[in-house]
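Input chain follows. Return structure tokens only.
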Amino acid sequence: MKQYKNIFLSLIFASTLLTSCESLLEVSPEEVLLEEDYLGDDKLDARSALFGILSQMQEITGQYIVLGEMRADLVDVTVNAEDDIRQISTHDINPNNKYINPSVLFSIINNCNFALNGIDTEAYDGILEDDYASIMRIRTWAQIQILINYGKLPYITKPISTAEDLKEEYLLLDFDQAINQLIQNLQAVASIDNVSKYENSLGYNIFNMIPDGDVLLGDLNLWKGQYVTAANYYKNFFSKNVGLTGRYNLTSYFVITNLSGGNYSTVTYRPSIFLNDAVQVGEVINYTAFSDQYRQPNSSFQVLTNQMKPSTLAISNWDAQFKSYLGATYPGGEGDNRTNLLDDDGRPSSYSGSGDDARIAKYNNEYFIWNRAARVYLRYAEAINYAGHPEQALAVVNGIFNSTTTPTIDNSPFLNNPESYLNFTTGIYYISNDNGVIVSGNQGIRGRVSMAPLSVDPSLNEQETIEAVGQIILEESALELAFEGTRWEDLMRFAYRNNDPSIVADAVASKFASAGDVATAAIVQQKLLNSDNWFLPLTIPDNFISQ
């Protein structure tokens, strides 16, 4: 029988990675295999290691949402919010705030390191290679969260089981160095698919709990400014999935606008993405599942649904939109179909209620969605726009059917395109008739939900057009992906690209100004104009050496 050891990472990390008040990273004991006991060629051990690491992803969902949304512009606090969440919202954070504690992320990284250093990828004719690659991608995801939230990455690849292990020298990577290192790590396993050999657990697909390698590489290259490379990775993800399974093509979970007797009406199927009992595999790419039966409850659900609400700014942004019928706006079509429009079961798409009674409606007690198709399409649009293709990027946002012009093989920007990362072939992404007219297929972000197409001033020069389309993508991401954990990251990435901290500062300040809190708006804006204040406090010991 294998010998296990409970490793108290709170004691291990006590002398190292501390918050600014020097408090311990209070990590619960994690049961991990000792390196000397880990038989890396044992298939059962590899499975147990992977499942154990995936179970830790349940612990991080609340922190992921709070840090990813509450620091940005789309989420505000309710009257029920605890002080820790209020601090996150106003960027006046006490070092003891529980939401800034990185201990679970470092614990995930450490347990990944045990597995990666123990798995024998040559055993059983390489059958454990996919376990290794999957765990590498989970570790990379956790490292990206450290980097985005703390602005630097203590780079540890050795399993740590004693305080002595932490006395060795380790690298401390800055933002750019970390991006490059994580890309290199992922490229080493790029040819290996995520593990798919394990049976589903409680009806949930293990494969979909593991971050996708192409999407991770696309995201990292987007941060790096390698836009063609990023676009190719995103397109590769689409090609593997849309072409082989038909999933993720933005043809489901739509809003239909009807016209009868001069009256317009809408029917929505969008709430199914978030609120159905079963995970919607046509849209959802990655998720974490919970189970009260097996003592793995969704401990964050009450916090996310009772202490957080849509900001006044978020609702105003939706209210300023226009709906469409056959690619054109119509009288009385103000507002956004992605907000509180109810489906046949009385469920809203994004939020319910109003004022302080407003509540976010995108969270499910049974599972949490980390990534879905719309997010990847918006990242892809961002990549191709900054690669010099704003026309195609805008088409991703609007959809080729969302126009008064009939789409054909000849006039579509995505068909017969010489650039492979811009070419969406008929028969897979689109269906055409014998006359070359596109009759069905990918609806685009706004087209799928019957929202009016957006455009830019045709008199703008090329660079101005790219910047204008970039702004559209950033705003559309807020409308489409609100409350899903990525808004802070999106604002940071655009500000980082443009070397313009006002993108972050102005957006967050607007949240308070829209709610009538002008004083807090001014304080927050001034604070966030210094990009050092974007990152949470993390004191690094002297044996972590900058390159």
